[in-house]
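User: Design a sequence. Structure:
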């Protein structure tokens, strides 16, 4: 089996798990929060993103080893015939985005499962993912500087922000009643931003490679995702404040529900 044959196997696995995730992302977003549909599709999305993010990192690793052998259609391309550029964009940056996807999917899943039991979030794996993402973000930015690609530098800032906010929450010994839910929203929607960014950018390379560096293409999932994060976090915070101000008589507050 050649490197390209193995790369094509990874592409097939990436599509097989990524496509359901791309579709499944929207069901929890619009379904009743905390309901069975929200939970079932949320589990499917998290599992799909963990797998597809891991496969993306394997594809990126093969690209780093053999950039043109894994992308033979770019050998004579006007913009992407340089192996250094292919290694940077489709190697280092894809490796970073794959790890970002895995980091956010795992972190968001743990927040939903463990809720206020913070000790269960503070695992060696969770801390290790934060350290790994910090290194990958720094490397993506550095590689962007070395090959003069501002896009790589800019997108690495998402990784730094993710690590900073994740660590800020993980260091807390007694988080507030709904902080786990706010973090869950941030992480899972952030996972969607990551995978849709990769889909638009790296998926476009098969048809029009030059679109992989188009700022507008990268801005669409980022702007959409940030809007969803701010909206849902605002809704959760508002409902929590309303419930604490006027709790139902004789009934405890249900802080584990997402609505």
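Assistant: Done.
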């Amino acid at each position: 089996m050649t490197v390209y044959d193995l790369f094509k196997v990874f592409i097939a696995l990436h599509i097989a798990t990524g496509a359901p995730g791309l579709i499944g992302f929207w069901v929890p977003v619009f379904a009743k929060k905390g309901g069975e549909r929200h939970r079932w599709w949320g589990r499917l999305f998290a599992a799909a993103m963990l797998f597809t993010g891991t496969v993306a990192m394997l594809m990126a690793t093969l690209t780093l080893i053999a950039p043109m052998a894994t992308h033979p259609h770019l050998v004579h391309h006007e913009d992407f015939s340089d192996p250094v550029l292919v290694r940077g964009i489709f190697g280092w940056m894809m490796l970073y985005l794959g790890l970002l996807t895995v980091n956010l999917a795992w972190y968001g899943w743990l927040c939903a499962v463990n809720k206020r039991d913070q000790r269960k979030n503070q695992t060696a794996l969770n801390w290790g993912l934060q350290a790994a993402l910090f290194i990958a973000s720094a490397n993506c930015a550095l590689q962007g500087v070395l090959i003069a690609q501002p896009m790589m530098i800019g997108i690495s800032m998402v990784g730094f922000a993710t690590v900073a906010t994740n660590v800020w929450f993980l260091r807390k010994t007694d988080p507030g009643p709904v902080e786990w839910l706010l973090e869950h929203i941030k992480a899972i929607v952030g996972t969607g931003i990551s995978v849709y960014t990769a889909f638009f950018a790296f998926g476009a390379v098969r048809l029009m490679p030059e679109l992989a560096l188009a700022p507008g293409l990268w801005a669409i999932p980022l702007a959409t995702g940030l809007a969803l994060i701010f909206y849902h976090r605002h809704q959760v915070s508002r409902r929590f404040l309303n419930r604490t101000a006027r709790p139902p008589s004789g009934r405890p507050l249900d802080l584990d529900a997402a609505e």
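Residues 249-259 have pLDDT under 50 and may be disordered. Residues 83-114 form the longest helix (32 residues).
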